[in-house]
């Protein structure tokens, strides 16, 4: 049973600063629980109730095939949110389990299940402590889930490696690390680098009580690769989706203007080292 969600509190300050790992960890679940409705009001139509979209550039698994052939595979989604990607897989007969640390996000998925007429298995779980046996999945993935919101993403990779069979595939998308150097702004202002790419201090929002309400972590491309290799993965591809012609959606700092000049998403396609 997850712990009770703290009372909502508004942010008094925001910026880049180190905070205790334990404070950021608590913030992850509480923020997404409290903001599930707002997130889905803003992005739900773009994501679709049962569609598999990797990123604001609109790259779809149906076109990209980054998971490979999942016929007969057991698939795990972490940081699934309302489980749209898993629902898309389930609607194609794939055996999939969608997990997320925030019950509020998964709960929204129940309504989508009803609308889509699909039952998607949903499990509340921190991606760093998955309630599954060793080597119980063939494929694991997340679209922007979990990794940016934990101080210790190496733990996510190690846990995913544990539940994957040797040779199993692990694919995840995150904000392209280069974006950290730029303001998160879809306009011209977002085109000028203002921060060191190498500054790993997280972006945090802090409430009047001093509680960390939101934390988002930056890793350079090299950091991601080091964490993956350290957890026993082999990097097969690094996909940097280009902004498609005619795609005019704006999602936070992602826009046609910036997409024409800068990568916005990095997708790591990896597999667990056999043996
Ligand atoms: C940007 S949303 C992405 C959700 C979904 N994949 C999508 O594309 O809409 C990030 C998700 O990561 C989840 N998350 C944050 N920290 C997590 C953790 N430690 N373990 C599992 N999920 C986590 C949040 O609850 C949230 O649902």
Automatic annotation (TrEMBL):
GO molecular function: S-adenosylmethionine-dependent methyltransferase activity
Source taxon at top rank: Bacteria
GO biological process, one term: methylation
Record keywords: Methyltransferase, Transferase
InterPro entries: Methyltransf_11, Methyltransf_Superfamily, SAM-dependent_MTases_sf
Segments passing through the bilayer: none
Residue span(s) of domain Methyltransferase type: 76-172
SUPFAM superfamilies: S-adenosyl-L-methionine-dependent methyltransferases (SSF53335)
Protein name: Class I SAM-dependent methyltransferase
Organism per entry: Cellulomonas rhizosphaerae
